[in-house]
Amino acid sequence: MAFDRIAVVGAGAWGSALANAAARAGRAVRLLARDARSAAAIGANRESPRLPGIRLADSIAVAAMADGVAKADAVLLVVPAQAVRDAAGALAASLEPGTPLVICAKGIEQGTRRFMTEIAAEVLPSARPAILSGPSFAADVARELPAAVTLAAHDEALARALVQALGSPTFRLYHSTDVRGVEIGGAAKNVLAIAAGIVTGRKLGASAAAALTTRGFAELARFGRAYGARTETLMGLSGLGDLILTCSGSQSRNFALGVALGQGRSHDEVAREEQLAEGALTAPALVQLAAEKGVDMPIAAAVEAVIAERLSIDAAIEALLSRPFRSES
Fold first, then answer.
1. Contact present, 22 and 29 (Cβ < 8 Å)
2. Could you read off the pLDDT of 30-62 as tens digits, one per residue?
3. Do 31 and 56 form a contact (C-beta atoms < 8 A)?
């Protein structure tokens, strides 16, 4: 399990950053863009339009998704969560059986309410699914600033080998077998980050922001435990760590969406102008899954209702602040 040849499917900001990270780790990297035209432009300019000003390593080969991932020792699937099913299906013809498929998306599929590795298992049953998640902004990783994330696979030996293949002094990977825990942290924190942004946009103060993040983590932890996640995973990089970053970082699309909503803009208006915020698409599935297990997630539910325009932001804040006093545990 040397994993010398890495294919990165998706040439957006995060895909380009991970391609650079894998190249720094000494791997032969092939970055697959959406189509031939995009691949030609990225190959010529040596940068992704989603990550302007940051050069791709000279050793990275750029191709179109239609060219496939044949001969790759491992594949990083770096597309938005709601596009994972289609992107995985497009790999079926070229992916060798037994190839590790590391999903680098954070979300829950709308409609099916499937987690990312569940989608991979359905679409590519011969692949070996893994998940990569943690507190990391694409620009930081691409610029070789220090960052640490978690990579989980059901097979511990596989997780260890992938960490060794992709890690470097500035891109630290920790391995885990708690696949579901890592998936839940990445999905839930995006929804909660929208709430944190709303607090900032409404100028509710630093105390409210700290309370929101803390109580948001309590929701994430309750949900995670209900779906079999380990406490140490939820407390780690892919859970609490990613929540802290996303609830306080202006680079976060989810936080930025929340700020805009808090300032009085509509979700539709922001969605037309800004880049994709995964939390807005994950919120309905997260709330539905929580209801199935009887998990109380008032902050996530408020975010979902605000995005769906069933509840105004002022009404959502009032409802949260008027909840009965209770034990913190």
1. yes
2. 999 999 999 999 999 999 999 999 999 999 999
3. yes
Angle of the 278-292 helix axis to the 206-226 helix axis, nearest 10? 50
Total-model pTM? 0.95
Q: Is 189 a catalytic residue?
A: yes
Instruction: Name 218's bridge partners.
Output: none
Q: In what order do the strands lie in the sheet with 28-33?
A: 61-64, 28-33, 5-9, 74-77, 100-103, 128-133, 147-153, 171-176
Sign of CA dihedral 273, 81, 78, 150: positive
Residue tagged active-site, from 106, 189, 203, 293: 189
DSSP 64: E
| CA–CA gap between residue 128 and residue 148 (Å, rounded) | 23
What's the distance, CA 269 to chain centroid?
A: 23
Mean of pLDDT over the chain = 95
pLDDT tens-digit readout, 242-293: 999 999 878 999 999 999 999 998 888 877 766 679 999 999 999 999 999 9
Total Cβ atoms within 10 A of residue 17: 29
Rounded-to-10 torsion of CA 161, 66, 48, 246: -50
- Pairing of β 100-103 and β 171-176: unpaired
- Show the tokens assigned to 216: 């948001």
What Cα–Cα distance (Å) separates residue 176 from each residue in 7, 93, 237?
A: 22, 29, 11
HSE-CB at 235 with a 13 A cutoff on CA atoms is 3
Phi, psi values for residue 3, rounded to 5°: 55, 55
